[in-house]
Structures are given as structure tokens and as C-alpha cells.
Automatic annotation (TrEMBL):
This is EAL domain-containing protein. The keyword RNA-binding does not apply. The chain crosses the membrane at residues 6-26, 153-176. Keywords: Membrane, Transmembrane, Transmembrane helix. Residues 409-652 form the EAL domain.
Length: 652
């Protein structure tokens, strides 16, 4: 019961108590008054009857006695009247024998005792005793009169109490409205939402409470903002290059390994190394500050180019060497894309040098991935191409010209398109395991058969599907088959599906997804995951999707969490059910203090928001042991088994 209702109930109880006490006192006083009135009526009746009947009683005129007694008896005040002669024998008796019940409740008459008074008067005439008259008053008259008064008082008290309750309720709700605001603030604070009451109440005590609550909200908000700043500072120190703001060498190589060797989500990729020629000479001719400005601008232009190209990784390998990883393009496409970048950097150099020199100070080396080349191989090839460009005084050089020009073969594109359009995909699963080694859910992956009827990994066909705008169709097929499996399977294991950024950009897909989930009885066992980059790209749309999924009791998670440079402040608004820490942060967890501290901080942030934290790409028991020490909620990776066909058990 709310405080307002408790106060109202207490006040009404007090009012009713006072009313009942008052009624009891009044009823007791009224009873005494009525008894006195009956006694007076009995005495008056006996006196008047005696004076009137004295001569008739001497004469023994019973008829006149009867007439007189009947006349006075009809007033209703009397229960019984007895007229006796001089010898004490009855001359006439009149008794109230009405069959009409007393108009008062039995409990009321039992509660209030009324003893009717009795009066006797000796009658004398001509100095001679002629008889006596006995009159007993009727108690029913007193009960009826008393009950009528009490009943009217009760009705009036009830009406007044109801009016008082309504008036009091309105006044209390107005006076205590600041407390509802404080309650709303407290509930919002539990959800990590910081709301202040701008209007302070006039009541002194309530003003103090609201002021204290506003102060606490500000302090908690500052505490969490400080925590975020500390984690961001740690991220910057451990993973960001202090000069350019891009990934530093360690983070760049980790990200390249993650995408090229583990996820293989780029498909065939191109790696570009941008190098400023003769850094030492630039420092001498331009000065350190101007050279640093040149490097910063080059990094910014390269990162902006990466954003235009879509999915990418940028970083600084050291000195004046920057790197960009993007999806593979032909030589002509790269020439057309990179020439404006080179011209901008050269123009800035000439502006800083204050000379019209035509000297080029930037060269680019490009290597393209084929047959799943390792990160080390790809970086080495790009450096060799950059060396060739520098020696030959060319702006761009390709490590392997025929590879750089080669894109998807028409046969492979046709094969992938036909397989997806015909629904010839199958699902694999990889289990996410909790701290107690109990499966939490299984993430499902789409796969197709290659031209030799052998399963191919994601990197071999998702790039083609992305270029052909077929990712939404793949995600539709995955959702439909996952829901079918959950509906038909007798297992309690839930499934998670990761939706592509390209898919989420289509409103018709989102509408279809919500409609299908609403109609599926198995939706509560399905989790929808979205990449962190996709969330930050269209936060408002993802927020709307998350709210719709929550209303349908569908779990929502953030994938590849913790690597985006924009941080994770979006968690406070999005409130996902869980997040998966990116595998690049977990790879060296058991050997890197920076990774260990940063991942521990991410877990703490998630838990402070009541969000479950999982870790991806866990391959060693040492990694999992470290994560369990950090209170991770679950782990996923080759340690628990490689992906296997949906419905089969993976090896542990």
C-alpha cells in the first residue's frame, strides 16, 4: 500500500473512531434522556388518570375507567396500565400487545439496555382511598427513537468521512507528489538513468528530501561518468596511438588477426600500407610539430576513406606507416579511390613546406589476400609493395598485380547466388557455456556447399552475398530455420542469430522479423545479436528494434563488444540482455596485463548495468580461468568445441 493510502486509511480510521466514540456517548446520553422522558410520562399519566378517575373508581364505573385508560394508552408511551380498586382487585388492565416488531435491530437492543420505568399512584376521593393505578412505560418506544437518531448520525458520519477521505486524498496527493518523483528517480537510478526534479516542493521536509535525492543522482552520474572516462583512458593508453588516435601497432595487428584469421568476415581483403617517405628528412625540413600534423592529417584522411569503403580496420604500425584493411578491389578501383588521398596529403606537405615543389612524400603498397593468407604474410607483402613504390618513385604499387586485379569469379558469384536464392544453406552451431559448464545458448552460422560439394567457411561466400545484396535473404533463411528447429526440437537450449548491418538497414526486413517472431511460440528461446559497429551506425533504429524485441520476450545481445572507438555509453540507453566481448581483446588475455585489466573493466561495467557479459573466441583453459576470476558469465570458442551441424553435439 502506498504512503498516501496508508495516511488516508489512518486518518479515516481515526475519524471513524472519533465518530463511533461520539455516537456512543450521544446514544448513552439519549438513552438516559429517553428513560427520564418515559418516567415523566408514566408519572404524568398516573397523576392525570387518578385525578380524572377518582369519582368513577369510587362508584365502580368500570366503563368510564376503561374509556379513560384506552384514551391515554393510545399515545404509545406505555407497556401496561393497571387500575385496582380499594381492596386491590383489578378493575381494568390495558397491555401493549401489538404484533408489530420494534423498529430497531436486535444487536442494537442487546447492546443498549433500557429498563422501562414503572409508576404507582394511590387514588383517594372525598378523603377516602378508592384504589390505585400502576403504569409501566414501553421500552420499544425508547429503542425506536434511539435507533432512529443513531442511524441518522451513522449515515451522516459515513457521508462526512467519505467526503473527508476524498478531500484528504486529493490534498495528500498534491502534497506528497514530490515523493512520487523521488520514487521515480530511485527506480531510474537503478536502471542507470539520471533524472533530477527541477521543481522543489515548498514543504521544508520534502524540499530537503528532493534536494538530497537530486544531489545523490548527480553524484552517482558523476561516478559512472568517471568510471567510463577511466576505462576510455585505459583503452586509449593500451590500444590507441597517442598521435593519430587510430589503433596502435599492437591493437592493429590484433584486429587484423581477428578478422583475417579467425572470423574471416572480410572475404578476400586488401591491405594498404601508407608511408610518408623519409620521415627523418621531414622532421628536419618541416620541424617535428609540422611533421606530426602531417601524420595526423594523413591518418584522418585514411580513416575517413575507410569509413567510405564500409567495413574496415585502420591503424598505425609505427613512425610514418599507416595501415588500412578493406574488402578487396581491383587495381583500377584502388587507383581511382586512392589518388585523391595521395593528392590531398601531397598538397598539405607543399603547404607546410611553403614551396611549389612537385616532390611526392607519400607512397602506398597494396597486397590482396588469397587462400587465407596470414596477417604476417599480408603485412609483409604490403610493405614490399610500398618499398617498390618508394624506390620507383610511384605513388601506388601492388605486391601481386594479377591478384590485385582478380575479384570474384563469375562462376563463383553465380554459384553463391543460386545456392542462397534456392535456400541451399545449412546451419552450424557453436555453444556458449556458463561458469558452471552448462550451455547457455548456441550461436548459429549459415554455411553453403562449394562447387565441390564441400562446406565452405563464411569468408568464402559472405563477401559475395554482401556484394550481391543477399545478406538479408540469408538472415531470413537463418531466422526461419532456427525458429523451426526450436519449435520441433525437444531440447531446452536457446539459439542466437547474428544479424548483418546490411540486413538491419532494410525496414521491410525488420518489420518481417517482428511479425514472424510475434507469430512464433518459440520466440522466447531465440536471441538476436547485433554487431557493435552496426549499433553505433544506427543507434535510434536499433533502440527501437530492441524495445520491440523486449516486448516480445526475445533476448537481445551486442556482438564484438569493446573495440569501437566511440566507446560504450550507448549501453545505458540500449540495455541489452547480454554482450559478447570481442575476441581480439581475449586472445592475449592470459599474457597481457593491459588486456586483462581492460576486459575486467568491461565486465564490471556490464554487471553494474545488470547486463550479462560473455567472452568470444576462448581457445585455452588459461583464458577461461582468467575470465572466470573476472566474474564472466559465459565463454564461447574452440575450447568448447568447433562449430558443428545444428542439432548435433560439439566436441568439448
Amino acid at each position: 500500500m502506498s504512503l498516501t493510502n496508508q495516511i488516508i486509511a489512518t486518518v479515516i480510521a481515526v475519524i471513524l473512531g472519533l465518530a463511533v466514540s461520539t455516537l456512543y456517548i450521544l446514544s448513552d446520553s439519549s438513552r438516559n434522556t429517553l428513560v427520564t422522558q418515559l418516567e415523566s410520562h408514566a408519572e404524568d399519566g398516573a397523576t392525570h388518570l387518578g385525578l380524572y378517575l377518582a369519582p368513577y373508581m369510587q362508584q365502580g364505573d368500570v366503563a368510564t375507567v376503561e374509556t379513560a385508560v384506552n384514551a391515554i394508552f393510545d399515545s404509545g408511551f406505555y407497556q401496561q396500565i393497571d387500575v385496582l380498586d380499594a381492596s386491590g382487585d383489578p378493575m381494568y388492565r390495558k397491555e401493549y400487545t401489538s404484533e408489530t416488531p420494534i423498529q430497531a435491530p436486535a444487536w442494537f437492543m442487546h447492546l443498549i439496555d433500557i429498563t422501562p420505568p414503572t409508576k404507582t399512584r394511590q387514588i383517594a376521593y372525598s378523603w377516602q382511598q378508592v384504589g390505585s393505578i400502576h403504569i409501566r412505560s414501553r421500552a420499544g418506544y425508547a429503542y425506536e427513537q434511539l435507533w432512529e437518531g443513531v442511524r441518522n448520525a451513522l449515515v451522516l458520519s459515513a457521508i462526512l468521512s467519505l467526503l473527508a477521505a476524498l478531500l484528504l486524498s486529493g490534498l495528500l496527493r498534491i502534497l506528497l507528489s514530490p515523493l512520487r518523483g523521488v520514487e521515480h528517480q530511485a527506480m531510474a537510478l537503478a536502471r542507470r538513468e539520471y533524472i533530477e526534479q527541477p521543481k522543489l516542493p515548498k514543504t521544508r521536509e520534502l524540499r530537503r528530501v528532493v534536494t538530497a535525492m537530486n544531489l545523490m543522482v548527480r553524484q552517482v552520474e558523476n561516478m559512472f561518468n568517471e568510471q567510463n572516462r577511466n576505462i576510455e583512458s585505459l583503452r586509449a593508453a593500451a590500444y590507441r596511438d597517442s598521435l593519430t588516435g587510430l589503433n596502435n601497432r599492437r591493437a592493429t595487428l590484433t584486429q587484423l588477426n581477428e578478422h583475417l584469421e579467425y572470423r574471416q568476415d572480410f572475404g578476400p581483403a586488401s591491405l594498404i600500407i601508407l608511408r610518408l617517405i623519409d620521415l627523418q628528412g621531414l622532421n628536419k625540413s618541416l620541424g617535428e610539430d609540422a611533421t606530426n600534423h602531417l601524420i595526423q592529417t594523413s591518418a584522418k584522411l585514411l580513416d575517413e576513406l575507410g569509413k567510405q569503403l564500409g567495413f574496415h580496420v585502420t591503424g598505425r604500425l609505427g613512425g610514418a606507416e599507416l595501415v588500412l584493411l578493406a574488402r578487396r578491389r581491383t587495381r583500377d578501383q584502388w587507383q581511382q579511390t586512392l589518388e585523391p588521398l595521395i593528392e590531398q596529403i601531397d598538397a598539405l606537405f607543399h603547404q607546410l613546406e611553403h614551396t611549389p615543389s612537385e616532390t611526392r612524400i607519400v607512397c602506398l603498397g597494396i597486397s590482396s589476400q588469397d587462400n587465407h593468407d596470414s596477417t604476417e604474410t599480408l603485412v609483409s607483402q604490403a610493405r614490399m609493395a610500398a618499398d617498390d613504390a618508394e624506390q620507383e618513385k610511384r605513388p601506388i604499387a601492388f605486391f601481386s598485380q594479377h591478384k590485385a586485379q582478380r575479384g570474384w569469379s563469375e562462376q563463383w558469384q553465380e554459384h553463391v547466388a543460386n545456392a542462397i536464392s534456392n535456400g541451399q544453406i545449412f546451419l552450424q552451431q557453436q555453444t556458449l557455456v556458463g561458469q558452471d559448464n552448462v550451455p547457455v545458448h548456441a550461436e548459429v552460422f549459415a554455411r553453403i556447399l562449394n562447387q565441390e560439394n564441400e562446406p565452405c567457411n563464411a569468408g568464402e561466400f559472405l563477401g559475395v552475398a554482401r556484394d550481391l545484396d543477399l545478406l538479408p535473404l540469408i538472415d531470413r533463411l537463418v531466422i526461419e530455420r532456427a525458429l523451426t528447429y526450436l519449435r520441433q526440437s525437444d531440447t531446452n537450449l536457446s539459439l542466437s542469430v547474428n544479424l548483418a548491418n546490411q540486413t538491419l538497414s532494410q525496414k521491410e526486413f525488420v518489420d518481417w522479423l517482428l511479425r514472424v517472431l510475434e507469430q512464433s511460440p518459440a520466440r522466447s528461446r531465440l536471441s538476436i545479436e547485433v554487431n557493435e559497429t552496426a549499433i553505433l551506425t544506427r543507434l535510434d533504429a536499433i533502440q527501437s528494434l530492441r524495445n520491440s524485441l523486449k516486448a516480445l520476450d526475445v533476448t537481445f545481445g551486442v556482438d564484438n563488444f569493446g573495440t569501437h572507438p566511440n566507446g560504450f555509453s550507448y549501453l545505458y540507453a540500449l540495455k541489452p540482455d547480454y554482450l559478447k566481448i570481442d575476441g581480439s581483446l581475449v586472445r592475449q588475455l592470459d599474457s597481457s596485463d593491459e588486456d586483462s585489466f581492460f576486459v575486467s573493466s568491461l565486465i564490471s561495467v556490464a554487471h553494474s548495468l545488470e547486463i550479462r557479459a560473455y567472452a568470444e573466441h576462448v581457445e585455452r583453459e588459461a583464458q577461461r580461468g582468467k575470465l572466470i576470476e573476472m566474474k564472466i558469465d559465459g565463454t564461447q570458442g574452440y575450447l568448447h568445441g568447433q562449430p558443428c551441424a545444428l542439432g548435433s553435439d560439439s566436441d568439448h
